[in-house]
């Protein structure tokens, strides 16, 4: 008889969860800068906003690839059900990200059509953020599953709840983007970022309250997890800390702090992500399959884990190094090359 020394499914779930969160956080702020880009008053401000994310934006999308590969390799059943269910918003997101990336490059090389590429960058960022929010809302709602296959229709993903989460994520990314601009710019552009950050904050506040009140009614298991005794006592720190983070964010947006708005926005995302994990874990196909039921074989997970444990620290190191190298305020005379 052989004993199971190590359960790899939770380890892979943690890797997947961390990868998705780092994508949401890192690509989230540069998508947020793109959303706010359309409010820039002049070309110099737009140049500064673009330069603030130019050194890091491409590397931020590494985490999207990691999340997709981890889902496919470690939880193939979940991949086979979720991807067909969210096919349209995923295609919309990928097209928006591609168009955004093209506009990023062409804006500096096709000066005759710079206004067009400016609009493309802004709308590509907004559409990409909205599509990600729709995917999130559809995931929380759950999918129509028969056996081991998605049994719903292509447009089932578009519901009032998923559209709400789409708009909510746009506001959330805009708040992150505003925090990043406050950190990286100064003068009138920084003041503009604070004003837009306050507007985004109210959108986030309304969205967090709406989603938090709506989510427990989507499935009885979620309501039971949050509101049964003693869970309600054990989990009460999450909404309390969320309120503390929201208060800190509002104060930071209204004083002269430069790093606090970004850090407080990150805290709001961390707590929201934690709330989602509490609501759904250990489900990876909500209300149908757990991480153990959807996992690939132990041999496959063990083989892949060796490569991930080698590559993941490398990715983290070069990501941290790139942010360290390009620390400080962005300068108007530093272009994107």
Task: Report on this structure.
- With 337 residues, the protein is an all-alpha fold.
- The chain has one domain.
- It is built from 14 helices and 4 strands.
- It has a two-stranded antiparallel sheet. A two-stranded antiparallel sheet has the order 3-4.
- Helix 1 packs across helix 8.
- The model has no long low-confidence stretch (mean pLDDT 88).
Write the layout of secondary structure elements.
Layout: H1 8-37, H2 43-53, H3 57-60, H4 62-74, H5 76-85, H6 87-109, H7 114-141, E1 145-146, E2 149-150, H8 160-184, H9 188-214, H10 220-227, H11 231-235, H12 237-254, H13 260-280, E3 283-285, E4 289-290, H14 298-325
Antiparallel strand pairs: 1-2, 3-4
Pairing-aware structural class of the strands and helices? mainly alpha
* Termini separation: 60 Å
Uncertain runs? none
The gross shape turns out to be: globular
In short:
The strands form two sheets. A two-stranded antiparallel sheet has the order 1-2. A two-stranded antiparallel sheet has the order 3-4.
Question: Can you tag this structure with a few keywords?
Answer:
mainly alpha
């Amino acid at each position: 008889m052989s004993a199971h020394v190590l359960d790899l499914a939770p380890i892979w779930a943690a890797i997947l969860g961390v990868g998705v969160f780092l994508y949401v956080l890192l690509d989230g702020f540069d998508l947020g800068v793109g959303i706010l880009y359309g409010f820039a008053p002049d070309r110099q401000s737009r140049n500064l906003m673009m330069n603030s994310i130019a050194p890091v934006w491409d590397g931020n999308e590494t985490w999207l690839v990691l999340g997709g590969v981890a889902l496919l390799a470690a939880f193939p059943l979940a991949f086979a059900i979720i991807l067909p269910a969210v096919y349209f918003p995923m295609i919309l997101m990928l097209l928006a990200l591609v168009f955004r990336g093209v506009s990023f490059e062409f804006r500096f090389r096709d000066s005759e059509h710079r206004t067009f590429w400016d609009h493309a960058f802004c709308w590509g960022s907004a559409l990409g953020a909205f599509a990600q929010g729709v995917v999130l809302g559809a995931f929380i709602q759950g999918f129509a599953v028969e056996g081991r296959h998605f049994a719903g229709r292509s447009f089932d993903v578009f519901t009032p709840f998923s559209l709400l989460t789409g708009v909510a994520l746009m506001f959330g990314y805009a708040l992150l983007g505003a925090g990043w601009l406050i950190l990286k710019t100064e003068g009138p552009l920084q003041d503009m970022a604070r004003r837009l950050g306050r507007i985004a904050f109210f959108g986030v506040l309304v969205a967090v309250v709406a989603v938090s009140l709506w989510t427990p009614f989507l499935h009885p298991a979620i309501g039971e997890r949050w509101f049964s005794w003693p869970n309600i006592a054990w989990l009460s720190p999450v909404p309390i800390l969320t309120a503390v983070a929201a208060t800190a964010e509002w104060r930071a947006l209204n004083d002269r702090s430069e790093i606090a708005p970004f850090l407080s926005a990150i805290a709001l995302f961390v707590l929201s992500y934690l709330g989602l994990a509490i609501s759904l874990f250990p489900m990876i196909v909500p209300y149908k399959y757990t991480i153990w039921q959807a996992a690939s074989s132990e041999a496959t997970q063990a083989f892949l884990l060796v490569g991930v444990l080698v590559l993941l620290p490398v990715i983290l190191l070069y990501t941290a190094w790139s942010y360290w190298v390009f620390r400080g305020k962005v300068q108007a005379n530093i272009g994107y090359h």
